[in-house]
Every structure is written in C-alpha cells, then in structure tokens.
Amino acid sequence: MTELDIAFVSRFVMNLFSLILLCYGCYFRVSKNATIAGSFILFGVGIFIITYLLHGVDMSMEFSFGLFAVFTMLRYRTESISIKEMTYLFLVTAIALLTSIGQMNLVDLILLNGGICLLAFIIDSSIFGRRYQVQSICYERIENITPANRSKLIDDLRERTGLQVEMVTIEHIDFLRDTAQISISYIPQNDCINEYASEHNSDLKVTP
To answer: Which of 74, 115, 148, 188 pairs as cysteine with 194 (C-beta 3.0–4.6 A)?
Structure first.
C-alpha cells in the first residue's frame, strides 16, 4: 500500500467518523430525522472524495467552497431547508474540506473535528434554554390573529392541539378564505410527542 493510499484511507475514516458523530450524535439526537442525517453523511463523503482526488491539480479552498455551492444549488435549491439544517450542512462541508485538503496533521484534525462536534452538541442541548418544537398550522379563526387577541389565540391553540404552545408567528393571511398560515412554537410534553413531531414533517391542519 502506497503512502497516498494510507493517507487517503486514514483521512477518509476520520472524515466518516466525524460526520457520523456530528449527524447522528448531534443532529439526529434532537431532530430524529434519519433521512436528512444520512443525506448529510453522504454529502460530506462526496465532498471529501472529490476534493481529495482533485487536490493534486492545485485546487484552492475557494474552488472547494464553489463546488459546494454548485452542489447546493443543484439539489437543495428547490427543497425547503431550515436554518438549522443549513447550518449542519455547512458544518458537514467544513469537516469534509478540512479533512480532505487541510494541511494539519491527523491529531490536529481529530481535535478540530471533535471540537466542532462538541460545540454542536452543546448548542443543541438544553443548557442554553428550553428546546422548542415548531409546527406550521392552517388556522381558520382569523379574528384571533389580531394583537389584541393574542392570548386568546394561544389558549385556543393549546386547547385544540393539546400542546404547550408558547409562541405564535403569522406567516400568511388569506382574507379570501378567512384563514391564516401560522407557525407555533411549543414545549414537547414527553418523548413520545417529541418523536412524533419530528418524524411527521407535514403541516398540521386544524379544523373546528
């Protein structure tokens, strides 16, 4: 086995382990979305392989991020992706690029990748405050969306959904149909509700 093969295998294993730790140890632990977590890992593996193999043709870091931008436009432009998922996608890309063409030794790369994963774990934990779930709702009692009826709106949502609704954001108002698209932030009551809300990534239709 040549030196190039040894370097490739060692960095590939490090990259894969770091991505698994980030996506499943941090992202999946909170979001419970195995599809996106697996897609992040495959995305990071693809970025690593391309950048490592093209590194011999004098590819710069700017070109690497440009390649990431092209992949993002091709696949994720038409897909609705949250700020949280976009952040993890950026971290996945950063780990893949640093591991593939970074000039640091393996020990420094392990420490750096581990630090990124640790920081993501801490930020997504409950240390910095309560963790909320967000759900989009089509709401038909449009008279309750006024600022004067905000408390009435929250009470109505709590009663009809059974969720501990804390915040409500109005996204869109349809006066022709007398409905409003709103986003609610609520505190998960137990692990079952938390898992159900994460796995069922669809709008909740509230009817009288």
So the answer is: 188
